[in-house]
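Teaching note: in complex prediction, the entire set of molecules is handled at once rather than each chain in isolation. The prompt given to students was simply: 'Predict the structure of this complex.' The entities are:
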Amino acid sequence: MNCPNCGRPESGVIDSRSLDEVVRRRRKCLACGARFTTYERIHLRDLFVIKKDGRREEFSRDKLSLGIRRACEKRPLPTGAIDKLVDSIEAELYKMGRGEVSSARIGDLVMEGLRKLDQIAYIRFASVYRTFADIGDLKEEVDSLAARRELTPANQLPLPSCEAVNSLSGRKRR
Ligand SMILES: [Zn+2]
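The expected output is the structure of the full assembly:
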């Protein structure tokens, strides 16, 4: 980083602070003494994804984001929730510190994140991503979600029989 005042390349670091993936450094030019600040982003090294069929392709944040967005379509998620999830998965992948990662591992991280974020999105993603061998697990998951949903009305005080009335008034009951 050249000095913004005199353009010389040599500077000394006066102070250094780490802000997540960015390092903020106060610098002093060794030639003219001007002080300036740099923000240095840790350079992410190349990351390759190994697909199920053995092909290797460069990791794409856009692709990851697209897959998650598709699963979350029309779900009432807080603003920025998807970006946050993409960020955390990306950070996790780079943190593993290896040059390559299997697409299955990425899928698992997405599933883990979506499970906490939104169960419908989770099921959607799972149904696309999971292999045939795992369909038993998926069914179990769907069943347990369905069971959980059915539990709620049963736990509340019974109302006069009609189911429609039950579901309409469900939110207002105390
Ligand atoms: Zn200077």
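Point out the following to students. The beta strands are 11-19, 22-29, 35-41, 48-50, 56-58, 100-102. Helices lie at 61-72, 81-95, 103-117, 119-129, 135-155, 163-169.
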